[in-house]
Q: What sequence folds into this?
């Protein structure tokens, strides 16, 4: 049991750390960090969303998403369609620059996913993602039982 716990926690942490590193390396030319990339990715594939929706999709807290939005807006990657005080629920859309970078992010994501899936059959990949989803849901249930 101890070995199973160590293997699970170490591998999950290692995967998470490597994903963050890959994001940072792949997008260094744009001076973007991992949370910026997630925001641009989801805005690109959805043709816009609110900050609230980004928090949910990116699995990041409100402060991280707010900082990311501010950075991306200041640097010309996105714009907010309203300037009201309730900007958190206002639609965010990519600028031309944001769409161009979003397209590059999508290409890079697909390339990396192809590389990391090497050696897996389609059935193994589907089973792996299904297992991850079940583990994630079960961990969420465990967390909810503490609240």
A:
């Amino acid at each position: 049991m101890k070995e199973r716990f160590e293997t699970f926690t170490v591998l999950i942490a290692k995967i998470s750390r490597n994903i963050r590193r890959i994001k940072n390396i792949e997008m260094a030319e744009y001076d973007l960090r991992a949370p910026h990339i997630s925001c641009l990715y989801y805005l690109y594939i959805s043709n816009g969303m609110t900050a609230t929706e980004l928090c949910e999709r990116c699995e990041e807290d409100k402060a991280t998403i707010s900082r990311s939005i501010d950075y991306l807006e200041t640097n010309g990657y996105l714009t907010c369609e309203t300037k009201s005080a309730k900007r958190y629920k206002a639609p965010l859309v990519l600028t031309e620059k944001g769409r161009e970078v979003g397209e590059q992010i999508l290409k890079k994501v697909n390339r990396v996913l192809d590389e990391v899936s090497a050696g897996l059959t389609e059935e193994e990949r589907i089973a792996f993602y299904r297992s991850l989803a079940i583990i994630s849901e079960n961990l969420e249930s465990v967390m909810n039982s503490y609240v």
Notes: Strands lie at 78-80, 92-94. Residues 58 and 125 are 22 Å apart (CA to CA).
